[in-house]
Amino acid sequence: MIIKSKFGNYTVEFKNYFNENKKQKYFYLVDSFFKKKNIKLKETNTIYIKASEKAKSYIHVSTIINKLLKKNIDKNSIIVCIGGGTLQDITSFIAHILFRGISWIFIPTTLLAQSDSCIGSKISINFKGVKNILGGYYPPQKIYINQNFLKSLKEKDLLSGLGEMAHYYYLSDKNKFNFFTKNIHSYFDKKNIELDKMIKKSLKIKQTFIEKDELEKNIRIYLNYGHSFGHAIEAISNFKIPHGIAVCFGLQIANYISFRLGFLSLDQLFTLQKPLKLISKNYNLKKYNELEMIKILKKDKKTINNKIRLILIKNIGKPFIKKFEKDSLLLKYLLDFKKFNLKYN
Ligand SMILES: NC(=O)c1ccc[n+]([C@@H]2O[C@H](COP(=O)([O-])OP(=O)(O)OC[C@H]3O[C@@H](n4cnc5c(N)ncnc54)[C@H](O)[C@@H]3O)[C@@H](O)[C@H]2O)c1
Prior knowledge:
The protein is an alpha/beta fold. It has helices spanning 58-70, 85-97, 111-117, 155-170, 174-188, 195-212, 227-236, 243-260, 266-279, 290-297, 327-344, and strands at 2-3, 10-13, 26-31, 46-49, 78-83, 103-108, 122-127, 130-137, 142-144, 308-313, 319-324.
């Protein structure tokens, strides 16, 4: 798969090995989960990082840069990132700013990273507890997807990947949505789930958005469907709810508000919520304070002139932007969402 990018086209290859070029100097930023696993890396050039939202901070990133400089990294070196979306965000940020940009390669090891974050060029780190507000665009040169990595994922991280993947299928068409729903049911019925196809289809859907609008000037904004609420939920939970599960709740709230505004029928709403409820079933939002949610939404990148803007949906594949003139209406919908969920659970 070749992804067209303003920053240089890059490739996604599905293979379980990566060969170093003898003439290049490589540095490895690796998720600490793999420290005791049998991955043969040159230890002197390897830094293990514990994946967490705290690790995605400006201060932590500077300590990693310091370590890389001590190991004599230079402009022609290549950084190889082995890990999930967290390691990706840390690595891409460093690769972008160090020596005004050095090459990097990504070997994604989580479902979320393999099916979504590995393409799209976005880099982001957190600042003062606010998620993803420092960043830019800086894609890797190459991405190698090896699905064997997924075998060791905890269930919560697998479900987080499915939760994040959901929004692509909801933004595509009925066939792809049905394929996604069928696989989610298979997973919960302990039957075979077609992860390989799910990953490839998800990347293909994302590719259509990012190749048309890499810098999020128009249609890419729709990929934020579920994400404004998702980021707020993550923050309120002090990042205890995994990113993809928070997005999955965000999708449920966006769908509910679309229903309240008359864009979805009750039947359509139930069809859309069913797979999402399965994915998020181990978590709940009962303790969440809606006012706090509004406060966080006000800091969202899409909020302009203090007016919250959300991506809602008219049906599968039909997203639109809704600006809320008054916070009070949004607050009412958020409170009603909780009651509605209690009634129909
Ligand atoms: N840059 C982007 O375009 C983009 C897009 C979506 C999400 N993100 C970011 O990605 C982050 C979430 O990424 P994630 O869901 O991949 O989580 P993650 O990278 O935080 O990893 C989740 C957990 O899985 C562990 N892990 C990683 N690989 C494993 C494996 N193969 N086996 C067992 N455990 C493994 C990690 O140690 C961690 O505990 C968030 O910070 C989110 O904001 C970035």
